[in-house]
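Blinded run. Sample ID left blank on purpose so nobody reads anything into the name before looking at the predicted structure. Input follows.
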Amino acid sequence: MGISGISIWQLLIVLAIVVMLFGTKRLRTLGSDLGSMIKGFKSSMSSEEAAKAEEEQKILDQQKAAAAQQQPAEKVDQNNKV
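Blinded prediction complete.
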């Protein structure tokens, strides 16, 4: 038994029919096109993740800068109260 009740022999027959219909050259180009498509998808996902991480880093830097600006102002206010 193979995949969901399909035997190995039935899969080989289907594969032989597909090869006879499309030919090995067309199947080879189809496989390379599929591979390049998957590679492009992976690279776009990784670049998207990098852009998202860069955006988060910018937000953190802005928050740190705002906190750093706020601290000296609080110290000045405390010095004026004394």
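Unblinding after everyone has recorded impressions. The chain has one helix and no strands.
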